[in-house]
Amino acid sequence: MVRHLQSLQDFSKEELNSFIDRAIVLKKERLAGVSHQQLAGKTVGMIFEKPSTRTRVSFESAMYGLGGQVIFLSGRDTQLARSEPLKDMARVMSRYVDGMVVRTFGQEVVTELAEYSSVPVINALTDLHHPCQILSDIMTVVEQKGNIEDLKIAWVGDGNNMANSWIQAAGRIGFELILACPEGYDPDPEIMAAAQKETAKPISVTRSPEEAVATADVINTDVWASMGQEDEQDERLAIFQSFQINAQLMAKAPADAIVLHCLPAHREEEITEEVLESDRCVAFDQAENKMHMHKAILEQLIVGK
Ligand code: CP
Ligand code: NVA
Questions:
Q1: On the chain, which terminus has fewer CB atoms closer than 10 Å, C or N?
Q2: How many A from CA of 223 to the centre of ligand 2?
Q3: What digits encode the pLDDT tens for the residues 240-260?
Q4: Residue ranges lining ligand 2, Cβ < 6 Å
Q5: Among the atoms of ligand 1, which is closest to the Cα of residue 125?
Q6: What is the per-residue pLDDT for 160?
Q7: Would you give the end-to-end CA distance of the chain in angstroms?
Q8: Does domain 8-130+290-303 have CATH number 3.40.50.1370?
Q9: What is the crossing angle of helices 13-31 and 283-303, to 10°?
């Protein structure tokens, strides 16, 4: 049966943990100079309707690193831009490639492509989720802290696609998560309710960044205006002012708390240059780990290894 990665809900706790374990092994093997050919003869189609640096390059590099190849398609260059139905795109692409990596706006685009595709469809970010990023971020936390299940993760900022995928991970894997969001910018309530049902660990929302970080092991943030929300940038700048990760907020967190940011970062908005460039911030490890995690995802979904 073809497995898709539309959101983290598509995989069991054991499967999510095995992506993380495998990515850690692949990272060590790359350092040791081990070469791989698991995906030799395989091709992935990358359909990107939003900009990307990390996700695009790390997926492409992951494919080449496993002996495979990629075809990159920016949204405007395909017939999708001229309203070809998604169900036709999915069936046509399935005849040419062994997997599709999709970055788009609506989650329903990924859902429909997956419904009609006979090859794996991987969500590389939608307005609702960013599942591959959260797997890379959890890998980074495990590297830094040894595990995630005994930790408290804080999210400070917008209840956006990243926040929603963190909530799904907390429910499925089982770890404590507290999100500090301004009123009106909470994460998706259905995703929240479903995750809370899955775990006995608390998953909660507060209006206070200080409360969120007070006993947190990991402090996580993201841009205040995501791709597609550019028109709201000025309004959000005003609303989110007190949700900045800065030295004052970090002084209220435990001394060994680390800071995560999926990048790109807007310095002096959601995070200060001082904190982003400090030893406590692991943003560039997160960025590197995307490549190792994408290898683990691609090999599992395409050749079932
Ligand atoms: N973190 C992340 O998804 O970055 P890109 O938008 O550059 O892919
Ligand atoms: N929330 C951000 C994540 C970017 C990687 C966005 O969707 O633009």
A1: N
A2: 7
A3: 999 999 999 999 999 999 999
A4: 125, 130, 160-162, 222-223, 226-227, 262
A5: 3
A6: 98
A7: 14
A8: yes
A9: 110
